[in-house]
Amino acid sequence: MVLLVDIGNTHTHAAAADAERVVADVTFPSEAIALGQAEPHLAKLLRLAKRDSFAGAVFCSVVPRLNSPLKQLLSKLWNCPALQLTPRTVVGIGIDYSKPSSIGADRLANAIAAQAGFGGPVVVVDFGTAVTFDVVDANQNYTGGIIAPGLAAMTDYLHEKTALLPRIKIAEPKSVIGKNTKQAMLSGAVFGYRGLITELLTQLKKELGTRRLPVVATGGYAALMAEKMPTISAVEPRLTVEGLRLVGLAHRPAWLRT
């Protein structure tokens, strides 16, 4: 069994997988890795997976300073070798991008999993700290994407930069017209972002020259945003770690089969 780790700016998503599927997952603050507090979370993952150890690990990271602490922790706990997803270890897709090293590794993992599930062209919309779009074209090449501020980032910014706007919890608005400040902010965030996504997908279809464009949503607000968006084909909370599983299966199949 293999350990899959997606280190994000705020949270880390860890999962256990075999050769067939992801069997269990946990999420914890990324800073726990730097503070030496990740071990209890990984122990919980082992309990969920009903295992005593991992044969190896596959990870992606957008926080380079946490890479070494993670490797050291895995070596200490299970003498566990770790494979990092980079443009050199990508499987299943090509890369048609001017500077591959600048692509977030989590975005590559998403593209790998989406292409495996839907073929190309396909688009991933990841609702994280930023809202990112990642595009795999008809030739199965990662060809670029779009980055916009995330929903929480936008609403937190409004709260921090104004005297009267409160911090809000993202949820489905009751109506487009807000009857108080919080409702008005929710409307702007949720309906506004649905409009942004719809327009960007329209432009992507034109640029790709395709009528068929599967859209896979992932990340914290994926289910909420997809609920009233027929343009979104699927919601896959485990998309990134599924991409890592496929990388492990291609490079180190023995890790997943033991």
Q: How does the SSE layout of this entry go?
A:
Layout: E1 2-7, E2 11-17, E3 22-29, H1 31-34, H2 39-49, E4 56-61, H3 67-78, E5 82-84, E6 94-95, H4 105-118, E7 122-127, E8 130-136, E9 141-149, H5 151-161, H6 181-208, E10 215-219, H7 222-226, E11 234-235, H8 239-251, H9 253-257
Parallel strand pairs: 1-4, 4-5, 6-9, 7-10, 10-11
Antiparallel strand pairs: 1-2, 2-3, 7-8, 8-9
Helix pairs in contact: 4-8
What would you note in describing this structure?
The structure is a single chain. This protein is an alpha/beta fold and 258 residues long. Helices cover 40% and strands 24% of the residues. Strand 8 (130-136) and strand 9 (141-149) form a beta hairpin. The N and C termini lie close together (6 Å). The relative contact order is 0.17.
Question: Outline of this structure?
Answer:
The chain is of the alpha/beta class and 258 residues long. It has 9 helices and 11 strands.
Number of helices: 9
In angstroms, what separates the terminal alpha carbons? 6 Å
Provide the domain count. Answer: 2
Output the strand order for the largest sheet.
6-9-8-7-10-11
Envelope shape:
globular
Structural class comes to alpha/beta
- Uncertain stretches of 5 or more adjacent residues: none
What is the number of strand segments? 11
Order of helices and strands, N to C?
EEEHHEHEEHEEEHHEHEHH
Overall pLDDT score: 93
Q: Percent range for helical residues?
A: 25-40%
CATH-derived architecture of the largest domain: 2-Layer Sandwich
Oligomer: single chain
Rg from alpha-carbon coordinates: 19 Å
Largest sheet: 6 strands, mixed
Give the class-level CATH name of the largest domain.
Alpha Beta
**Approximately what portion of the residues adopt beta-strand conformation?**
15-25%
CATH-level-4 superfamily name of the largest domain: ATPase, nucleotide binding domain
CATH topology of the largest domain: Nucleotidyltransferase, domain 5
